[in-house]
């Protein structure tokens, strides 16, 4: 089912790209057959080049301004708690029944997969350096874990040289990969001073939300359909292109659409 969904998503991307090409090629080429051929070749070339370019870039899941503020306040609140690891125990138990609490970390047992995961929480409100990460991992060697997840305030770039799989999350990644994924959030008891929010971000988020894709595409489709029978004016080409571009942004812009992450623990 997931493969079918991915194929459909890629097909929709190509269709939107093809539609934009069709608007402009049809404006200059009278033959409908030649228009379709040219559009297919141009769209395929752009599509392939874009896929190659995007595959080389790492896409980071971004949080909205409000979510970033929540992430900061939640981490600050946990840092003030006497035993913050107990919150993570409750969160992890939503999916993993076999858990052992050891001071500042959890040991999560996956009996069927024969995997042991450690979740370590570092409450200090400072950047977690590479040397400190090494110290933490070395201190956990006795557990013989398969995977180690470290949650911290901020982090330095880290290159893993240990045989265990090591994942280090800062406060924003902890919010997104754990709190949101498990739909379990710490109670906010302490907050940072808030700055005045910019309203226009919310307006853009609404205008280019995924739910707007159909409206933009349908409007552009009507203009393109009329261009098959009557040669479209420059005005029609511009408006159709803008509508299709808006549809493409609304459907695939990561800033305004939520993404799901995989299992972490």
Task: Characterise this structure.
There is one protein chain. This protein has two domains: 2-58 and 204-252, no CATH class; 65-182, Dna-directed Rna Polymerases I, Ii, And Iii 27 Kd Polypeptide, Chain: A, domain 1. The strands form two sheets. A five-stranded mixed beta sheet has the order 1-2-3-5-7. It has a two-stranded parallel sheet with strand order 4-6. It has nine helices and seven strands, in the order ααααββββαβββαααα. The model has no long low-confidence stretch (mean pLDDT 81). It has helices spanning 2-28, 32-55, 65-80, 85-92, 130-139, 171-182, 200-207, 213-229, 234-252, and strands spanning 99-102, 105-110, 115-121, 127-128, 147-151, 154-155, 165-169.
Brief synopsis:
The protein is an alpha/beta fold.
Features:
265 residues; alpha/beta; Dna-directed Rna Polymerases I, Ii, And Iii 27 Kd Polypeptide, Chain: A, domain 1; 2 domains; five-stranded mixed beta sheet; two-stranded parallel sheet; 7 strands; elongated
Q: What series of H and E elements makes up the topology?
A: HHHHEEEEHEEEHHHH
Shape, principal axes of CA atoms: elongated
Low-pLDDT parts are: none
Major sheet, described briefly? 5 strands, mixed
The number of helices is 9
Strand order of the largest sheet: 1-2-3-5-7
CATH architectural category of the largest domain: 3-Layer(aba) Sandwich
- Overall tally of structural domains: 2
Q: Ends: how far apart?
A: 24 Å
* Average pLDDT taken over every residue: 81
| Rg (C-alpha, Å) | 25 Å
Strand content: 5-15%
Structural class: alpha/beta
- The helix content, as a percent range, equals 40-55%
CATH class of the largest domain: Alpha Beta
Give the total of beta strands: 7
CATH fold-level assignment of the largest domain: Dna-directed Rna Polymerases I, Ii, And Iii 27 Kd Polypeptide, Chain: A, domain 1
